[in-house]
């Protein structure tokens, strides 16, 4: 049970946590993988190499300690993390392992400060938070399993189509091996895919946005191939170079707390690079409805050769009389469309027709891009509650 005394003690350790910084979580992961190497088949080991996961975990621990009296402030983060955990098929027993190594890490890094009282307080705090996640994730698992076409854990799928969408993005259509229905999802959500790349010693699980509207028959993901030698490109390069039509992969049920919600208001979709993938699902869903409110799609990418889904997007936009604008950072050939711009996305150039007061704005792309767009939208008078965004990789706050 988490008592007021526990809360006070945990809060008193915040300066200690901040002085340790991400080194604390780096030690934690090294310890955990040393004692429980089987977890390397669950955790994203690429993020371990880049340090992104250690930083993300440290920020999460610090945020929990600072908000332990007001967990409502963390509700959106809890929901986002719980969805992410289900895409890795995280179970209650994993929390026991994580808790053990977290407590032992604190003991090893701060033996003098880690008194019996501090250990008791942090153990109670961890168990309290872990139970919140366990309960929420159990509910999500049950929901997925009970739904029409739903399942629990990993399910075998066949690559039924592979389509190159641009110089760097390729789509994979995934059909269940048993030819049965698949669970419906909300436009904007993602799916966890489990593969064993030839260049990896471990099973690798990654999350990719679903890039088509839900159809109960199959799923489509569209994957950007990271650059040669990139630490982030292990799975994407494997999918592009080695996975072909007829090959098998395992999928977890769809997940994600970023998705389109119909509110009978105008909609503006804003993406950069491969952030266009969830927008394709939203755009397809909107095009298949009787939505009367106006839709605008704004997209930015490096150049024309990296512009994925150009024809597919134009078909949906033109067919409904909606609007679109495109920005190419470096044009590779002459721009010949009125709605095409060179350089970085600048909303001042297109602000006049945008529904700044009454619209809903959905964003997806690199964090730096979304930080810029959020600032631009707020400068134009858009309320923060009307801005919805998706972040790739370990969570970052805008």
UniProtKB/TrEMBL annotation:
What GO terms are given for molecular function?
Answer: FAD binding; heme binding; metal ion binding; nitric oxide dioxygenase NAD(P)H activity; oxygen binding; oxygen carrier activity
Q: Which residues form the Globin domain?
A: 1-138
Q: Which cofactor does it need?
A: heme b; FAD
* Keyword Repeat on entry: no
Q: Which UniProt keywords apply?
A: Detoxification, FAD, Flavoprotein, Heme, Iron, Metal-binding, NAD, NADP, Oxidoreductase, Oxygen transport, Transport
Q: Is-annotated flag, keyword NADP?
A: yes
Q: Which reaction does it catalyse?
A: 2 nitric oxide + NADH + 2 O2 = 2 nitrate + NAD(+) + H(+); 2 nitric oxide + NADPH + 2 O2 = 2 nitrate + NADP(+) + H(+)
Record EC number: 1.14.12.17
Which residues are in the FAD-binding FR-type domain?
A: 152-261
Cited Pfam families:
FAD_binding_6, Globin, NAD_binding_1
Q: Name one GO biological process term.
A: response to toxic substance
**Family of the protein in this entry:** In the C-terminal section; belongs to the flavoprotein pyridine nucleotide cytochrome reductase family. Belongs to the globin family. Two-domain flavohemoproteins subfamily.
Q: Which NCBIfam families does the annotation name?
A: PRK13289.1
Protein purpose: Is involved in NO detoxification in an aerobic process, termed nitric oxide dioxygenase (NOD) reaction that utilizes O(2) and NAD(P)H to convert NO to nitrate, which protects the bacterium from various noxious nitrogen compounds. Therefore, plays a central role in the inducible response to nitrosative stress.
Q: What is this protein called?
A: Flavohemoprotein
**Classification of source organism:** Bacteria, Pseudomonadati, Pseudomonadota, Gammaproteobacteria, Vibrionales
Query: Corresponding gene?
Result: hmpA
